[in-house]
Amino acid sequence: MKLVLLGPPGAGKGTQAARLIKDAELMHLSTGDMLRQAVKDGTETGIKAKSYMDSGALVPDGVVIGIIEDRLKTDGPTASHLFDGFPRTVPQAEALEEMLARIGSNLDKVVYFDVPEDVVVERLSGRRTCRQCGANYHVKFVPPKVEGKCDNSGCDGELYQREDDRPESVINRLEAYIAQTSSLIDFYEKKGILCKIEAAKEPEAIYEDVKAALGM
Ligand code: AP5
Fold this sequence. Notes:
Layout: E1 2-6, H1 13-23, E2 27-30, H2 31-41, H3 44-55, H4 61-75, E3 81-84, H5 90-102, E4 109-114, H6 117-125, E5 127-130, E6 136-138, E7 159-160, H7 167-181, H8 183-190, E8 194-198, H9 203-214
The structure holds BIS(adenosine)-5'-pentaphosphate.
């Protein structure tokens, strides 16, 4: 199975991905996580990506397509993937289609999280992320048991605010989404594989809708 999670920054893609990868046994391919790891490791890709990410702009298509292409080769044609935050432009969507066709595969469904802008701004401004394991929290909606510390057993990592969750970057990310990513809703609707989920509600209620849309 190959699925895409589509939606504005802060729509809850990562939150729902964490549930889906467990229940549907999918490999999680989050280009945001992969790029943040590359920045942390100081790789050539990370050095190229950092300034785009900090300002809230999209990283050039060639860089992210290359990352996904490498990963598809490593995982092989039969792997089940959950693409989170990729594709984000029409050229990325076309490249994904071609890469999958080359290995005799295709996308099964695209889950689109529909959330109003004021909701995503509130979610992003309160998000805290674990430095060790990458788990996401929210100061109001998903608070950790101990302030500033990750709940995951054996982790105990420090929680921090992502550079691109600061207000100036959030505005740029929303603009980039509208200008470069939102056309993918129509792109996938025309292909008949888009499932639209109303995502301005509790995470559990959203997950029930996702499972129903995917026939799980
Ligand atoms: P990326 O990491 O993909 O960021 P994003 O798409 O902006 O998504 P987020 O991680 O911000 O949000 P999310 O939808 O996963 O929400 P989450 O579940 O965390 O990308 C970062 C950057 O990398 C990009 O700006 C770009 O520069 C670059 N990049 C990545 N992919 C790229 C690509 N393909 N092409 C080019 N550049 C690329 O939830 C957010 C918060 O809300 C959390 O605090 C969470 O606890 C809370 N929350 C979640 N659901 C709910 C709910 N239902 N109710 C209340 N609170 C909730």
